[in-house]
Model the fold of this input.
Amino acid sequence: MNDIRHISQEDLALHAMQVLSAEESAAVRAHLDQCAQCRGDLASLSGDLALVALGADQQPLPAGARERFFAKIATEANMSPAADRPSVVSIQSKRPNPAAVWVPWLAVAALLVVSVTLGFEVQRLRLALEAETEASGRQAAAHARAQQVLDVLSAPAAQHVLLTAAKTPPQPSGRAVYLASRGGLIFQGNNLAQLSEDKTYELWVIPASGAAPIPAGLFRPDASGNASVVLPPLPAGVPAKALGVTIEKAGGSATPTAPIILAGAAPTAGE
Amino acid sequence: MNDDGLLIVRVQTRDQVAMGAIFDRYATMVYSVAFRVLKDAAQAEDVMQEIFLQVWNNPERFAQGRGSLGAWLAVVARNRSIDILRRRRPTESSDEVVLHAATDLSSEVERNTLMAKVRGVLKRLPQEQQRSLELAYFEGLTHSEIAARTGDPLGTVKTRIRTALASLRKGMEA
Done:
């Protein structure tokens, strides 16, 4: 070991395991006090040694270990305040039979330990229940959305639209299922060209009533040119004449900008 | 702040539920490390109880930032067990232990996966490296004692331990 040259990794490892002699450890400590680099190396080696500890075969806890731990905590909690009550001690000193005095106190202490343990168990179960409830809520929400998707896809009244490019290859295309009564729309685009960062594709529902096109979601294709829009927020009860896709600025637009990249007429509902 | 960090903050407010969560998460691991060193259930439980009592009474020691709670508990369990094995006074091990452990052990799945991986890497080490590391780490022998027991030169013993740790780190990163 050398204070000037840093402690070797070998000696740092032995120091971390506390198996150096007292003199060697003192020398290492003296160096570590002055050397941030060696302190860092030591911390890394300690991390490695923690892994070695984790290599120990797992043993089941002895029965009752948990209860003993919480009883110990409860006992400590009860001991501290008791020490601040000299009046209790003075009563004890007046009793002719000290053992008789301790019996009720021991009973109280035992009951206290039991009640604290039970209280803890109740809290633990409550937390577990809350976690279960939360998980159940998440599952219900996921299920509801999946059901919505199924409803739109399988509804007899859904309008199935095939969107194709006006020009030849590569052939961007899109398929959409639109359920006007619910405002449900599922769109899948394929072979879409990649866009620059400041641009995005925007899907539009063109109402049969002749009203202005309704924005139905922004999307960008993945590396394979595929993209989808699933259940964008749309008003219910707006039958579509057609669906279209345009290229807009990254944040989207309130009105479609020409040219229309993909377009498809929506057949009458139920066709 | 990770989940363990939040639990420690709650323990600082004497929250027994949080302490219970830490106990449930790490007690088996701490007990197993102590048992591996001491090979005695009663002594191993004593070490385990003492360490968790220390967390309960002085959570700020860990809250000051000593790396992963799980890794810290494992190292302290080993150090305290070695103190008992060698019948020496408790070292200041828990205060001194500061470690860099990249792995978060708070998830049971990740913890079990990690343990299995560690065992796999350790088993693949050359026999003499395994032996030197085990004698130093789980039996607390000094390198001189290991050299005397195995008949190897001191320098060789040191190199084997260092190489074993380096291989373990590399194996875990792979």
Observations:
- Chain B has a mean pLDDT of 86.
